[in-house]
Amino acid sequence: GAQIMVDAELRKRIPNVKLILGDSAADEEAATERAKNEAEEKIRREKEEKEKAAAGSDDEDEEEGKETDPAKIAAAAAAAADQGNDVPVDRVVWMYESDKGWQFHENEVSRDLEEKLRSGVTETTIHMGEDLLIVNLVKGSDGKGPSQTKDGEAAKRLRRHVKGEGLQGEWEMISLRHSPP
């Protein structure tokens, strides 16, 4: 409740802020669905081109079967969703939810997570101090958004934030860092 209120207030003050929450709403779902449809359409077109060019080669039929694998379609959809994204990797900040509010990942970790997301990776591991975390970068089949899990602990929500340029971007970061008493 309080986090939604903070986000709504931030959006009022800074209209160009782009927040993608772990439990994001219809806009993210629609973008993901469009990307999935585009990926499926691309696979279908490639399949038709191969059929025309090869006229039924057995080796290519096996490759085509692999391309219709749902896991590959999901990865291609995630990659397609971010290919149109002209935002530099350095402006993307990844955060995780803690008892003290949203905490920022280090710049190297944010860069690594963003590059993996853009390359279509849906799950990865990162080192945070001495801990090894399992990170899910996209919404899972359970409907929950991105999360990170430390061995033996409950999953923590992840959040991807695209920082604005210049002073506006710095103000956003200060607003996101602020944790009321």
TrEMBL record:
* Compositionally biased region (Acidic residues): 57-66
Q: Where is the composition biased (Basic and acidic residues)?
A: 31-53
Which residue stretches belong to region Disordered?
22-84, 140-181
Q: Which domain of life is it from?
A: Eukaryota
Please name the InterPro entries in this protein's record. WWE_dom_sf
Its recorded name reads WWE domain-containing protein
Native source species: Octactis speculum
